[in-house]
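Researcher: First entry.
Model:
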Amino acid sequence: MKPQALTQAHNPQQVVIDDATQAALAELMQRLKGVYTGWRQVWPSEAEEFAWQDEFLAECIRSGVLHQGLIDHGMRTAGRDRRPWPPTPGEFVSWCLAPEAFGLPSEEKAYKIAMRNTHPAQAGMARWPHPSLYHAAVACGYLALQNLERKLGFKRFCDMYLEQRRRMARGEVLAPAPVAALPAPMRKGSPEVANKHLAALRAKLGGGRG
């Protein structure tokens, strides 16, 4: 494989593919061929294989998929795929970045948590199971999330949720979500103060003694 000019964020970057990366890509291609029987339709020649690898590597760099554990999760998803032909590089990377790869709630469950926690009735009481859900909801906007049609709100949240996982894949540490304050424990008054107030109340009601 020849080094390719890969676009990352804003600036083009020349990426040198070392021997270890070449070996990892070759192993991945063999694993994909073992799962997808129709791979020859997508990769009829080495040129098509190398093009897929180049685009896959570029997508990995853009998305932060640089750990074997994430790629292994993508392969587990591929193993459940019933299509005969392999996925596009972008689709495969999206499998690598699935919430389950990070031990996070599914998109559907995360959206339900976000909708509950951004409701005005939950102000000051919301509890977030992971900072990624909180930051995704903040990026969407609490008010927008509550007022958007479900289809649009769900898509918007999923996009922001994916961005948080990309940040995690790149090694960023997400700021913690605010912790809901626990109700303040009731303070016990001294017996003398309690008796004084009780005596005053009895006197007012005409039930005082003496």
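Researcher: Second entry.
Model:
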Amino acid sequence: MTRTLAIIGAMDVEVALIAKTLENVQEHTRAGVTIFDGTMPGTDIRVVATVAGMGTVNAAATTQHLIDVYEPECLLFSGIAGNLTDHLHINDVVLGKTLVYLDTDMRMISQSAPFTNEYHSDAHLLEVASTVLSEMSIEHLAGTIATGNTFVEGEAAERVKELTGADAVEMEGAAVAHVAARNEVPVLILRSLSDNADTEYETFHEFDVSVYADNAASIVLNIVKKLA
């Protein structure tokens, strides 16, 4: 029986290297996203990869679509994030051991499945990812990632750090982990640090983040190989 893994990114640049690497790729457009459906070179693993779009609703809808249609054994999120630590640097990596929402009252949300105030990447996937990152000599930590629907920079980043103790901030991870938990599908959220959450969106939008996105994608591809 063919094994299927799903990979999600929020932006085209976060999935481009993955789509380019897969073999025998077919493209399917459904539920507002294009799925790149192919095989990981040198393995018998089927990979379905897609660009969800930015924000929690796009991420959640895409995650549920992948689970319903392709029934992956696990979900991997590949992307960039803003650094909130004093000891990691640009192009280092934060693995989402814990994922929390920034702008959600969890007193109400946690009354529904999976009945929790926070979400977690799968322990085995975290272990595999850490091994791959060490083999690639990439500085990393398994920490907390904060997710919200607003681009965070400057003083807002300091407030996020004080409120959540997060190591990185982004816009999709908790939503992906939330939906994965509802469906009991193992998930891994991996973020390559592209900035120090100190640049306003109008400036950041002009940056070429492909180096950081490709860094995350290459790590995720090596994780897939390790899982083969």
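Model: Note on the second entry: The chain has one domain: 4-227.
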